[in-house]
Amino acid sequence: MLGGKDNLAVDREAVDRIAEHIPAAIPLARANRAFLQRSVRHLAAAGVRQFLDLGSGLPTGGNVHEVVREVSPDAKVVYVDHDPVVATHARALLEEEGKVVFVQADLLRPAELLAMPEVTGFLDLNQPVAVLLVSILHFVQDADDPASMVKVLRDAVAPGSYLVLTHAVEGLGQERDEENVRDVYRGSSTGGAQGRELAEIRAFFGDFELIEPGLVHVCEWRPDHPDLIGEEGLPGYLMAGVARKG
Ligand SMILES: C[S@@+](CC[C@H](N)C(=O)[O-])C[C@H]1O[C@@H](n2cnc3c(N)ncnc32)[C@H](O)[C@@H]1O
C-alpha cells in the first residue's frame, strides 16, 4: 500500500483485493504513514528522546528513526513486530548500534515485552517515551482485550510520555465491502481486522491528555502540507490522536 520495493507477491495480491472493495484503503494507508511521520517529528521537537514503535511493519520510506534523526540525532528507537518476515527485513535495514533496535515480540503480551532485556537494556522507562500504536490496534481482536493491553503500556511509562495511535472506525463503509476486506485480513498473518466506535478508540488513551487537535481524521492532525487538504475527501475510516501522560 505504501509503494517501495520491500514487499511480497502475497502482500500485493491482498492489497489488490482490499482496494477492490475499499479503494480509499491505499491513500488512507499513505495518510496514516504521513501522520506517523508528522506526530513523531512533533514529539522529537518537543524533546522526546525514546520511541517504542509497536507493530512497526516492513521497513519502508520515512521510518520512525529517520524522521526522529532529522530533529534529534541521539534519540533511541525500538521497533517491535511479531512477523518473522518483518523481523528479517527490519534487522537488516533498520538496526543501528546503540540507537535503533528491532525486537520480535507479540504486543498482546505487553508486560513480557517491556521486560525483555533488548528493551530494558535500551530504553529507560523512568524517562518519557513515545509509544506508537499506529494502524495496529484494529488488528487486535476484542477477545484479546486490547483495552487491558494498552493500559499496561500506559501504566508502565513515565509522566511526560506520549501515546500515538491510529485506528479504523467501524461502520463507515458498505457492510458488504467491509466484510470482504475483513475476509482478506482473516486470511493474512494478521488473523483479522476490525474497526471500532469512536468512544472505544478514545478510551485507549485512558487518562492521558489528548494534545491539539484531539482525536481527528488522520489527515486533519496538524497537516503540514497543502496536498493533505486534498486528502480531506478521504472517507473517515481512520482516526488519529496523540496524548500525553501528566
Ligand atoms: C499495518 S502494519 C502497521 C505498520 C506501521 N505501524 C505503520 O503505521 O505504517 C501492522 C503491523 O503490525 C504487526 N502486528 C500485528 N499484530 C501484532 C502483534 N500481536 N504483535 C506484534 N506485531 C503485530 C503486523 O505484523 C504488521 O507488520
TrEMBL record:
One of its GO terms (molecular function) is methyltransferase activity. Keywords: Methyltransferase, Transferase. It holds the Pfam family Methyltransf_19. GO terms for biological process: methylation. It comes from the Bacteria. InterPro entries: SAM-dependent_MTases_sf, SAM_dep_MeTrfase_SAV2177_type. This is S-adenosyl methyltransferase.
